[in-house]
Q: What sequence folds into this?
């Protein structure tokens, strides 16, 4: 929730957990926030200082457990240090490359009394993030861009964190530079404009992957060359010189050798660059890209009567005009959402990218609604991942938070099933969520009619919380149900029975080069 | 390649754990590590020896810098520096080998700390190569036990000021 609040508002999210099990339960959330550089402060309780280390009731070495999944953490042993530590925690979480910071507070410190002295300014001698880019590096980068014929912007979450979307739009338009985004940067660049390529990587668009591979310059901004983006690293953008703008020096040349690194804040650096980037038309390059766009646009069978999951997302996108906040879980529906939901602005698309934590979406959606009470918040979930954290509905109901949920129910852990189909000889092992003891051991012919009754019944489940549940099993009912969902000012769950064995395409298999993109099954 | 990296850190509890966690999580191997207080009690100096190519060293340096409690990281790759470690070595010694051994110990400028009926315990400081050479030389006499400290190092001449660092 704190994570969804932070991603959707840009302000640090805060979560509180009790000692021991409370603290260990937030580890996944911290790891997700750390991987995706989300500013967050987690406050955990701890046993009294005089019994730390004695295996006291509900004791856990919280700072030890969370050290690898936080930007920094603190154990406060004296109440006099508490105020300064809290201020430092927010300072560290929100500056430089943002990230989660944990403050562990023993019970005697919580109850302690001291004079409240809150420092106005924080100065940590060992922590000084760099915001200004090196002007020599910036000049080199600009020269390369000005002399390039086939440049591509590759933008990541750093662009959103530094609010640099305007600068990207300005430079890309001025110099005719097409833009591809990572999963976390969905919405950072206006979709469906002529310079927008969409997402790159494993389930990226054909044109984005082609453009990256053909580019002579890649301008990576606030992106970290994740393996889901690069495919086989040694074949990634082989023809390109790589410029990398990032606030975190460790991100540079970590995965891909960078020719021109610029360490600094994306917005500050891009502002400085834009003054000297020449206005230029790159007609041939844009024409080539338009060709790729036309050759393999994102597609599914739009004309049949089947209820394709992509259709649902396309309709959500249309009905909300791409202005609603979408929080996704992790899996096939997440990729379809990234492909088909046309988020108009940054901070509208919330998804666990780096960690890929199922169970992220629903609480993130609730957190986003807390932070944006006037915005529509829709959680797009899979039937598998929704079950990870659906108990959070209690929070939504008790706080009158009307978060809408569209479950794309395919009765499978769909992404796992897709891989089992494509790479493991269609041996559907432990991915079917309807399978019972009586089913044939190696069943790989699922059907709604013959399979055992699916559990849980999401409609009844929603109703048990006092929320509204609607089941949709027919394509023609999708739009009316979505309209009803958008009109409702209450928690509502749509259990949408989509095509069971739908696959996500395009796809670049693990370990393959972006050149080896598969656009369809058997083709 | 072997690198000696000097790291100035805040002298707080948990800092050593942060650094060892970092090495473990990133898959870097620590050859040796030493920690001690500096002339300023709030600051400790860690001397870390790592083996690896340019990529590993660059990542080690950057990742260390990224830790909030790390004040300064210096890699002695391109600078002149003094490096020392200390070893205690207990060697078999009989009447017949006594003269030879004492001569060798003298050549290596090691110090005898203890002699018993059939062994001699030697203290030796030096860089790793020198200690290795000594150990190799006395190996034929039979080594009973050894104990070595990790490396400590300081740059020659100039002082590395504890100044503001830049990081993300």
A:
């Amino acid at each position: 929730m704190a994570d969804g609040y932070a991603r959707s508002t840009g302000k640090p999210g805060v979560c509180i957990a009790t000692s021991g099990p409370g603290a260990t339960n937030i580890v996944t959330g911290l790891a997700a926030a750390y991987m995706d550089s989300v500013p967050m402060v987690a406050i955990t309780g701890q046993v009294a200082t005089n019994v730390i280390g004695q295996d006291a009731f509900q004791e856990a070495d919280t700072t030890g457990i969370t050290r690898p999944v936080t930007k920094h953490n603190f154990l406060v042993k004296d109440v006099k240090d508490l105020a300064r530590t809290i201020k430092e925690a927010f300072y560290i979480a929100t500056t430089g490359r943002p990230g989660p910071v944990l403050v562990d507070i023993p019970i005697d410190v919580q109850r302690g009394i001291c004079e409240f002295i809150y420092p106005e300014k924080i100065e940590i001698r060992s922590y000084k993030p760099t915001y200004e880019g090196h002007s020599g590096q910036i000049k080199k980068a600009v020269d390369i861009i000005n002399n390039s014929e086939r440049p591509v912007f590759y933008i990541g979450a750093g662009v959103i964190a530094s609010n640099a979307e305007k600068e990207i739009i300005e430079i890309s338009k001025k110099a005719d530079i097409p833009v591809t985004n990572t999963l976390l940067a969905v919405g950072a660049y206006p979709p469906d404009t002529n310079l927008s390529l969409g997402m790159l990587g494993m389930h990226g668009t054909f044109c984005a992957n082609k453009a990256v591979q053909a580019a002579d310059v890649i301008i990576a901004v606030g992106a970290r060359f994740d393996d889901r983006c690069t495919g086989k690293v040694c074949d990634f953008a082989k023809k390109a010189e790589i410029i990398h703008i990032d606030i975190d020096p460790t991100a540079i040349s970590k995965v891909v050798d960078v020719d021109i690194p610029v360490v600094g804040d994306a917005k500050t650096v891009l502002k400085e660059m834009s003054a000297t980037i020449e206005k230029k038309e790159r007609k041939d390059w844009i024409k080539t890209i338009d060709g790729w766009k036309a050759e393999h646009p994102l597609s599914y069978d739009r004309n049949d009567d089947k209820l394709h999951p992509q259709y649902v997302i396309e309709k959500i996108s249309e009905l909300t005009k791409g202005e609603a906040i979408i929080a996704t879980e992790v899996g096939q529906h997440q990729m379809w959402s990234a492909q088909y939901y046309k988020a108009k602005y940054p901070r509208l698309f919330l998804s666990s990218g780096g960690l890929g934590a199922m169970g992220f979406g629903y609480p993130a959606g609730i957190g986003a609604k807390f932070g944006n009470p006037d915005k529509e918040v829709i959680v797009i979930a899979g039937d598998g991942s929704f079950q990870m954290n659906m108990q959070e509905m209690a929070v939504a109901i008790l706080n009158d938070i009307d978060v809408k949920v569209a479950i794309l129910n395919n009765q499978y852990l769909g992404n796992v099933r897709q891989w089992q189909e494509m790479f493991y000889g269609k041996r559907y092992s432990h991915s079917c969520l309807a399978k019972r003891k009586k089913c044939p051991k190696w069943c790989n012919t699922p059907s709604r009619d013959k399979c055992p009754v699916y559990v849980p019944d999401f409609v009844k489940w929603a109703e048990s919380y006092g929320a509204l549940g609607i089941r949709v099993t027919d394509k023609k009912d999708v739009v009316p149900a979505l309209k009803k969902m958008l009109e409702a000012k209450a928690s509502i769950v749509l259990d949408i029975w989509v095509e069971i064995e739908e696959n996500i395409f395009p796809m670049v298999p693990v370990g393959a080069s972006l050149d080896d993109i598969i656009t369809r099954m058997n083709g | 390649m072997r690198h000696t990296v000097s790291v100035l850190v805040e002298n707080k509890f948990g800092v050593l754990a942060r650094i060892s966690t970092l090495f473990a999580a990133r898959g870097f191997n620590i050859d040796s590590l030493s920690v001690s207080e500096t002339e300023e009690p709030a600051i400790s100096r860690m001397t870390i020896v790592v083996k690896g190519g340019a990529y590993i060293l660059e990542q080690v340096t950057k990742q260390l810098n990224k830790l909030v409690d790390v004040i300064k990281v210096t890699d002695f790759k391109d600078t002149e520096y003094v490096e020392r470690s200390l070893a205690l070595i207990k060697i078999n010694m009989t009447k017949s080998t006594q003269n030879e051994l004492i001569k060798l110990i003298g050549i290596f400028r090691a110090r005898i700390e203890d002699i018993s009926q059939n062994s001699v315990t030697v203290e030796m400081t030096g860089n790793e190569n020198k200690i290795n050479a000594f150990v190799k030389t006395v190996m034929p006499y039979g080594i009973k036990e050894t104990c070595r400290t990790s490396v400590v190092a300081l740059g020659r001449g100039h002082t590395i000021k504890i100044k503001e660092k830049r990081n993300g």
About this structure: The first helix of chain B runs from residue 15 to 26.
